[in-house]
Amino acid sequence: MLQFRTLAATLLIVGLLTGCGDPTKEEILKKSEGADTKTLLEKALGRPDDIKKLGPLESWTYRAADGSVTFVIAGDQVTISTTDDKKPADSAK
Known about the structure:
four-stranded antiparallel β-sheet; 3 helices
């Protein structure tokens, strides 16, 4: 019985840890389908990792395991979504 509990606890921990990483760009875009307002986008994806504002425009960026996804918002309407690939940390050299 103790072995079963140990195995169950190990599987639970592994399952929780695999769900802790950032989603992929594809997963973010899929979750955001149909979210054409700020409210719906935030409901679908949660708070963005970065928000930039320029007049009535906002860009909301979500970090992904393989880069990032940015949504451009005009007023309350989501107008454009773009993706960016993750760059190696040493590419700035």
